[in-house]
């Protein structure tokens, strides 16, 4: 029943076959591609529908969410939609006072730093389940509009989300968060477990409503050593991925500057590893032992170069990705807001035309 109601009609999508490591070799294989932050300020149609409404308010308006999620699929012909939401939406739905300040990012009115702050975190009971209703409705509308194009659901990983909560907003080094886990590991564990529970249920709601794959974003995890990651963070990210591991969806795990953590992040329960542009994709595949499907990792800088450099990078990424059992092309990080949308549309067309020739059979 889940399969019929949820991932209706998308399970044969080439993108999902890549994620499952079922790539068919040969010249007919077309590349699958989507871009992190493909929705958003690079698109004039996004800026238009977002006029007069705050980021987080827009995340609980199902028609708007569906429209924004579908916009880049319509325009660029990418092979997946990424659910329009944000990593702090579960915290907002749980009742925390958070806003997204334009040009800055998520800001929490009351940073969570002490035992009393953690004691006061809202419970995640029936009220939270009810608060997820607009998320479920948004996914249903989006999936209906996307048809045979898969929807990727997502949430933030406990370290990245907790770092906004502890620091109160964006920070460079996440020092307070990293100090908390060393100084008061039992408090850190309580905070990270709360985030994992909220994010895991937000993610599960997306899959049950029809998302065909999930991505766990641990954008700031690169500031941790592997030792600290394994001691304090891995178990909490594993809890989030565990919230959907009984469902038949690929689980992608992505961090920025996290080349040294690929193996550990895979151990958290991912079935696909994202790579940023700081590592050569074939090196990432080797670091994972050669058997793990990958996603990545065109340097976003080539969105601002001439076409020759851009297409050379795209071809190199395709060739390197061919060493994995599956490869979905993406950028090494999100689309910068100042990107010319036509550059992305042309890049998708180039990747779709080139892939078979690059993988060569
Ligand atoms: O008003 C606006 O348009 C604000 C810009 C914006 C958008 C479009 C923010 C604020 N969030 C989003 C949507 C969003 N956020 C998506 C869905 C759209 C898509 O990808 O096409 C996703 C997947 C996210 C995830 C997200 N939010 C991450 C992880 C991915 C990444 O880029 O590393 C992070 C770290 C955030 C926090 C956040 N939200 C918004 C901003 C500007 C930031 C980063 C702030 C910082 O630098 O610390």
Automatic annotation (TrEMBL):
GO terms for cellular component: cytosol. It is an enzyme of class 4 (lyase). Keywords: Cytoplasm, Decarboxylase, Lyase, Porphyrin biosynthesis. It catalyses: uroporphyrinogen III + 4 H(+) = coproporphyrinogen III + 4 CO2. Its main location: cytoplasm. Residues 32-41, 152-168 form the Uroporphyrinogen decarboxylase (URO-D) domain. It is found in: Cytoplasm. The record marks 86 as: Transition state stabilizer. InterPro entries: UROD/MetE-like_sf, Uroporphyrinogen_deCO2ase_HemE, Uroporphyrinogen_deCOase. It holds the Pfam family URO-D. Its EC number is 4.1.1.37. Substrate binds at residues 37-41, 86, 164, 219, 333. GO terms for molecular function: uroporphyrinogen decarboxylase activity. Pathway: Porphyrin-containing compound metabolism; protoporphyrin-IX biosynthesis; coproporphyrinogen-III from 5-aminolevulinate: step 4/4. GO terms for biological process: protoporphyrinogen IX biosynthetic process. It comes from the Bacteria. Catalyzes the decarboxylation of four acetate groups of uroporphyrinogen-III to yield coproporphyrinogen-III. Homodimer. Belongs to the uroporphyrinogen decarboxylase family. This is Uroporphyrinogen decarboxylase. The lineage of its organism: Bacteria, Bacillati, Actinomycetota, Actinomycetes, Micrococcales. The gene is hemE.
């Amino acid at each position: 029943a889940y399969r019929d109601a949820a991932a209706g009609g998308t399970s044969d999508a080439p993108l999902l076959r890549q994620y499952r490591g079922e790539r068919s070799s040969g010249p007919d294989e077309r590349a699958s591609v989507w871009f992190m932050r493909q929705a958003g300020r690079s698109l004039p149609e996004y800026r238009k529908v977002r006029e007069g409404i705050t980021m987080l308010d827009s995340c609980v308006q199902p028609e708007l969410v569906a429209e924004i999620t579908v916009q880049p699929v319509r325009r660029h012909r990418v092979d997946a939609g990424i659910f329009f939401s944000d990593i702090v939406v579960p915290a907002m739905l749980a009742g925390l006072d958070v806003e997204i300040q334009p040009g800055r990012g998520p800001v929490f009115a009351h940073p969570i730093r002490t035992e009393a702050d953690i004691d006061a975190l809202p419970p995640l009971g029936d009220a939270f389940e009810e608060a997820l209703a607009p998320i479920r409705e948004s996914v249903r509308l989006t999936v209906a509009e996307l048809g045979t194009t898969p929807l990727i659901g997502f949430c933030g990983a406990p370290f990245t989300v907790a770092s906004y909560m502890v620091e109160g907003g964006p920070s460079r080094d996440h020092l307070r968060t990293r100090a908390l886990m060393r100084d008061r590991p039992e408090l850190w564990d309580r905070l990270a477990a709360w985030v994992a529970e909220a994010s895991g249920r937000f993610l599960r709601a997306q899959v049950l409503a029809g998302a065909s794959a999930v991505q766990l974003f641990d954008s700031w995890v690169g500031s941790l050593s592997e030792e600290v990651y394994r001691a304090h963070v891995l178990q909490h990210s594993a809890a989030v991925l565990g919230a959907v591991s009984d469902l038949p969806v690929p689980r992608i795990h992505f961090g920025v500057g996290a080349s040294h953590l690929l193996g550990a992040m895979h151990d958290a329960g991912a079935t696909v590893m994202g790579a940023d542009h700081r590592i050569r994709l074939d090196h990432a595949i080797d670091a994972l032992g050669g058997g793990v499907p990958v996603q990545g990792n065109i340097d976003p800088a080539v969105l601002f170069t001439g076409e020759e450099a851009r297409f050379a990078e795209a071809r190199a990424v395709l060739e390197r990705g061919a060493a994995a059992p599956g490869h979905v092309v993406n950028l090494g990080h999100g689309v910068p807001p100042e990107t010319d949308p036509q550059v992305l549309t042309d890049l998708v067309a180039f990747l779709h035309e080139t892939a078979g020739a690059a993988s060569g059979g």
